[in-house]
Design brief:
With 548 residues, the protein is an all-alpha fold. The protein has a domain of 123 residues. The chain contains 25 helices and two strands. It has a two-stranded antiparallel sheet. Strand 1 and strand 2 form a beta hairpin. Helix 1 packs parallel to helix 4, helix 2 runs parallel beside helix 5 and helix 16 runs parallel beside helix 21. The N and C termini lie close together (8 Å).
Amino acid sequence: MSMVASQKRPLTSAPQTPVLPVQPRFIFLGLFKRWIWIAVFVAALLQSLFFFSPANLFAVVFVLFAWGLADKFVLTAFNLSKYTFSTVIILGFSLTQYVLPLIFTLLEGKPITYNLKFPYSVFIHSLLALVVFITSHHLYKKWREGLAGRLYYKLSLVLKRNYFFATPSDLQIWIIGFVGLAGMAVTYLSGSHFDGTAEERGTVAKFFQGLVPYAYTPLFLLLRPLFSLKRPPFVKPPTLKVMIFASMLLFVGMGGNSRGLFMTGISAVGIAYLIGLLLGKFDHNIFNFKNALLAGLGLWIITGPLADLGTSMVIVRAQRSNLTSTELVLKTLEVLQNKKAIKQFRAMNTVIEVRDWDETYFDNIFLSRFCNLKYNDASLELAYKMGKPNDDMLSYSIDKFWAILPLPVLNFFHIKVDKLTVNASSYGDYLYDRSGGKGGLGGFRTGHFAGTGMATFGWWYLLWLGIGIIPLFLLVDLFVMYYQQGAVMTTCLSLAGLIQMNFFFTLFSVSNFSESVVNIYAFLMRGWIQDALLYWFILLALRKLRLF
């Protein structure tokens, strides 16, 4: 296979006129923006009519304003083509913090401010964060095309010379997928998975845990135009084989009692397909009878059987430490057949209780882990209880930052950090504990960067957010190969980035990453390097075995 470096050299400077003429392949982008605005306006009107209150009206106005900013400054053909993954990060934040909560709370018969104790603060902080993201993205593009142009070119050349943009064959993709599946099985089906943190399980366990995202690689065989350097002749995608493989992921997820294991892959492919449509990689004429049936079937599966399965897994979660993986699968399937128990569990969890930590927002168990504004609200509530930036929160954040480094590195630089203790809790746990909560450490509550930021840095957290996100944008866009000839923009995405699509999309909404602005700097120090090296190691192994 010829090396990618033989391809035409990408431009290192931005075109003089960033507003490019509309190309036929960007028709879906215009349609998407129109549909989103229609949906947002309709939902905003109905939210204002059916759930009128000053707080809800305030939230609706902020959603309209925020999406207007995202529509104008982020969702453009040029950004999507040249700065794909950094644009996905801001687009994901805009959709999960504004558009989707507005629409889906309405569909569930709730106001967008449902169960929010500090709705004004939630939307003010989110809007300020969005403004920071958009401003930093603008500065990043100027920096990359100017002072950082040579650095970006050299780093991207290293990736190209090491086959990051070489188009893998189907066999290679399947091998990578089964390697990831093995890592998933070892991590989530081993008897020690629920006994302590990854640090306690050792370096080998952490290596297998790092392989988990690669289990989703075969799913992207359905989206080959996204990572193919050349437009291949039409080949029918191996849909049946991919569905069988997805079923294997489903059973591993049940055995590990983690609905995220299979939902992450599904959402990553769905988001990647949307980005492919926006880039014009796929036919924009998606509205026909066949696709309508498939979309309806997919929606029914996600909101019906998969939602029931996710609820069943939560019901049996309390027993997972005492059951083997096989027993967990059987127990989950047993509960899945008990529709009455599932209904009662959901009814119980929709009742808002007076408690120190409450995550109630969406009824749908998957939406609640995708775009849940209650995490923002709960973290801000705890920060307000503390009253001002807390020295203990700052010390914990510093320790959490250093704890990402391997123990030999910490010892070499004489950095004293108890990694086992620090990593045994989340930012949400520590914030809960410092604000007066009892027995909170070790519960791994999902905090949010607004609350933990206020408790650690005060309003200065926005500055740390804006500074750190600029080099992060550069790193994630290294997985994008972009060419421009005249007005024609061509984009190829590396599989190393595609398999992280769900991670990028939810980076600052509901994820372990979104808990603190400090995680940005941890990602810069180790996260991106570790992911890139692991992908390179897999490619190297394939080449040594003459499978690449």
